Amino acid sequence: MRVKRFKVHPPRLRTVLLLSNLAILALPVAGLWALRLYESALLRQTESGLVAQAAVLASIYREQLQIPSDAGVPGTPPQPAPAALQMARRHGLDFALDPILPPEPADVAGPPAAQDAAEAGRTLTPVLRDAQLVTLASIRITDRHGVIVATTGSDLGRSLLGWTEVERVLSGEPIVSTIHRRDPAQAVSGGISRTAGLRVFVALPVMDATGSAVGSVVLSRTPTSLGETVWGKRYELLELGLVLIAGGVLLAAGISRLVTRPLSVVVAQAQAVAAGGTIGTLGRPGTREVAELSFAIARMADTLEKRAVYIRGFAASVSHEFKTPMAAIRAAGELLDDHAASISADERKHLLEVVSNGVARLELLVRRLVELARADMLRVGTGRDAVAAVDVAVARVADRYRERGVSVIVTGSAGLVGLPDDALDALLTSMLENAATHASGAKVRIVVEPVGREVHITVRDNGPGIPPAHRDRVFEPFFTTSRAAGGTGLGLPIVRAITESVGGSVVLLPAATGTEFLVSLPAVG
């Protein structure tokens, strides 16, 4: 399969890191904006100021009406919390939760105010107007019938009874809410806030000693808008934004130095491996993941190099093994072709035997090479096809070789191993074929036993044994000491490939006489 490069280049990691950091920094601001938390805070700030003013004015109005109060008098029983305090204990206005009421209706003409209320209103009017210069709140005080007796506007003597919220206040219910502006919002140069489209509305009843409302204090004011607050802090916010952006850039640069630079080196290493070179692990990987990636690539390069060396040696060995029978076949063929009329019948028979033996040798080599390739490519899956019964496979292979005249003794017993049945058959066949090839009048003893989470299969024969100088080479492909007897040198490499495919092993054990191999396979169940 041909590997193609990306037609569209993806962004660099440092760019992704920079954008991610800026997005993370922007998330709190976006959250505040989406939930209108800061606007709600401004709303509650205005609310608390109006509640405090209303409480003070209600107390003063009560004094002007000469309504006695037992608050703070020693010996009096505890009284319910005043309406203003009850409102102060509430959670406060919230843009996300509280509805915005319709604008206040136009005031209407009302009856004359009660004399005591009118006198109290005339006294309070200068106080209201002085307070408005600072607070910018609209303040109105009414008598028990909703007639305005003191105001910061020009509606003195008008009635608010047409306003549902005022009627509720005169029944003794304090109200805090937001209402839409009745008049269009207008910016005032040097003013605190006039551009918001709503007003905070606070109304407190003024109660007498019997608990009846004798009047109300009604205040409203436009809260400071978010835009005005941001504009007022524009220089500070700009400085903060620049600091955050600089912090995001520095953070991205630091992470880039810690991650992307080692990754660039790892990419260069991978390219070197693709070009056929060798590499080592990074000296300063930066992070554990980069270190593991570098180590994995180094291992991959080492594995590929070993595989390349193995393939080169294997190809040379295959060429050498095939060259001898092919050369014999070619020589016999040329002799038959050049001297067909002059050679004797015995010579012709000998040459044909050379050709036949050469073909048989090539067929054997090809068959064993196919078996080795299958063992090298063995991939064990799951399910019933991935396990084999050891006792059944050993008995089957032993019977097969007994029919060929090999004495095979089997002792011990074991259960299942994590290896397909055909692969286990090929493994045992290679072991017994190796013994039969090297031992004259071969006697083989197979011992099967479970050991922990493995099954051990020991194969001993009565052959001449393996010289010490050859013990380290017995698992090399094509290495054999019995070439004349038909040995290919592929049996033990096939055994090793099959065992290693499932995490097992095969080792040559020291033996006083003959040869002894130990095969370890993972047990199942």
How do the helices and strands line up, and which of them pair or pack?
Blueprint: H1 13-35, H2 37-64, H3 83-89, E1 100-101, E2 108-109, H4 115-135, E3 138-143, E4 148-151, E5 158-159, H5 164-170, E6 175-180, E7 198-207, E8 213-221, H6 226-232, H7 234-274, H8 288-338, H9 345-376, E9 388-389, H10 390-402, E10 407-412, E11 416-417, H11 421-438, E12 443-451, E13 454-461, H12 491-501, E14 505-509, E15 515-524
Parallel strand pairs: 1-6, 10-12
Antiparallel strand pairs: 2-5, 3-4, 3-8, 6-7, 7-8, 9-11, 11-15, 12-13, 13-15, 14-15
> How would the global form be characterised?
rod-shaped
The assigned CATH architecture of the largest domain is: 2-Layer Sandwich
Rg (C-alpha, Å):
50 Å
Structural class: alpha+beta
Q: Fraction of residues in helices?
A: 40-55%
> What is the number of beta strands?
15
Characterize the biggest β-sheet: 7 strands, mixed
Q: What is the first-to-last residue Cα distance?
A: 40 Å
CATH superfamily of the largest domain: PAS domain
CATH topology title of the largest domain:
Beta-Lactamase
Low-confidence stretches: 77-81, 188-194
Q: Mean of the pLDDT scores?
A: 75
Content of β-strand:
15-25%
As for the number of domains, it is 3
What is the CATH class name of the largest domain? Alpha Beta
Enumerate how many helices there are, as a single number. Answer: 12
